[in-house]
């Protein structure tokens, strides 16, 4: 899980969870790894964890991280 991601697919605008949390939680963000096409969403698990960017089926994103990312 990460606290930073890119707001745009071209990876020009980095955004933190603090900033992203004020935006629409259904919006997709993009992985910091330039080789990884994962789409991330802002999420917190049952409110017990700090919000973070997460990809994969549990958050309903369309693309997961590549291996070792
Ligand atoms: Zn990734």
Describe this structure in a few short sentences.
This protein is mainly beta and 69 residues long. It has one domain (4-59). 6% of the residues lie in helices and 25% in strands.
What can you tell me about this protein's structure?
The protein is mainly β and 69 residues long. It has one domain. Helices cover 6% and strands 25% of the residues. The chain has 1 helix and 5 strands. Strands 3-4-5 form a 3-stranded antiparallel sheet, with no helix packed on it. It has a two-stranded antiparallel sheet with strand order 1-2. A hairpin with an 8-residue loop joins strand 4 and strand 5. It is globular and about 30 Å long. It starts with a strand and ends in a 14-residue tail after the last strand. The relative contact order is 0.25.
